[in-house]
Model the fold of this input.
Amino acid sequence: MSLTFSLAHLMGGIILLCGYSLLSQRRLAAMIMLYQMQACVLALAAFWQGYAQGEINLYLTGIITVALKGLLLPAGLREIVLRFNLVRAVESAMPMAMSLILGVGLIGIAVLVVLPSTMSAVSLTREDLAIALSVVLLGLLVMVTRRSALAQIIGFLSTENGLVLAAIGMPGMPFVAEFSVALLVLLAFLVVGIFLLRIREHFDTLDVTGIEAIERRGR
Amino acid sequence: MLGFALSLIATLLHAAFIFAAAPLLMGLVGKIRAWALGRRGAPVWQPYLLLYKLLRKSTLVPETATELFAVWPVAAFLAISLAALLVPSFCTGMLTADLSDFITLIGLFALARAATVLGGLETGFGFGGAGAGREILFSIFAEAALLVVLLGFVLLAHGATVDGIAVAFATQHIGISVSLGFALAALLAVALTETGRIPTDNPSGHLELAMVHEAMVLEYSGRFLLLFEYAAMLRLLLWMDLIGTIFLPFFMARADDVLSWPLGLLCWVVKLGLMVVILSLFEISTAKMRVFRVPEFLGASMLLGFLAGVFLFVAARIGL
Done:
């Protein structure tokens, strides 16, 4: 096996590991830290793929990733935690062990779905795709299992990391698509930030169970 | 004949090195930890002095203890030293190569743990019982995680001996696979728990409510305590050897090739040094976990081992 494949694979593995540990964290600081690590490894993976495929666009993706998701967004998240004076421990909607087991199940599903359906593709992209889909699903699971809105945002951002991972592993992905995804995330982050501000103004907390109660009353 | 003699010498060298170096390793971890915290720290040979001190002190046996009180330290020490002899350090192909089955190792760990736990329960005082209960709680998950990780190794290396795994990983082109990364993460979590390092247990802490290993050996003194302390040092070296042999089998010497020994020894020292630095830095950068979080931590590592197996199975079925 070539070094290209091995290193790409290793970085994919680390990204998946970060996504998985994201699921097991109870504290916001640790979640933000893990997200930052994931984004940095993703940037490394993009640089490596850029080097391996000889694509200048992938270097750009890497730079955007490290600047935006490795530095800017975590700083913003920390700022929100600090300014809102949030409770640092996140409540989860189900027992942690349960969500971890569900996570393993999701990764298993991702592998089972992607590997057979891409039999014709080169193996480099196949396992990377499986890992990317797993990261996406794990991010969604984080969004489902957390009560705090901020933790849900981190899950959303981690989902997007999985998408970028899928994109950089695929030769010939147009740069415009990746760029617009990155911009979209930044915009979504801003929108959600304002949204958080509103939630907080109304309920004095970022726990979304309050919203659910209102919704039930409204019906 | 020459091959046998050489592997005998290698085995004896291995035994001499591990028994001599185990306290030094512990001292190094303490020293680097102290440096990183901006303190001067005890000299690196402090564990030797500790062992010597314990050798000279009188050995007390509590009145409530049974006759078996003296058996447990010996049993724990013997099980750990046997396990340490089985795991290759600087070379593969030692006399113990065929015996170094991973499942044997798990059994020896369990034996040592059982002896320590029974020693803790021996006098019937509260802290020993609490420590023993926690140790058993952790060990259920740790052993399960080890077995699951072993599954991945056996699938990759087609053999369950540590020696065989090391040879297979060093010579065959297995590459860096995701499964091995997961297995490493799982094994590191188990190793930290087994050796009683910081996220699960604090080796230097003497707060009774948080102790696990220390609580069990609280009633022991003198030579009995020496055996337990020495076993703990050997266990640290043993786990570093195990992880180094499986995941970093580079430049390991062959027992029947004398000329490769110096390089093998040098690389062994470098590997150990690296792991000591990483362990010390990790220890000062994290806090101890709550006791009831530890099963979750180990459960996650078990699931990681499981994931490693999933990736391997699927890859094997689809013929990657």
Q: What stands out?
A: Chain A touches chain B at residues 1, 5-7, 9-10, 12-14, 16-17, 20-21, 24, 96-97, 100-101, 103-104, 107-108, 111-112, 115-116, 119, 123, 126-127, 131 (CB under 8 Å).
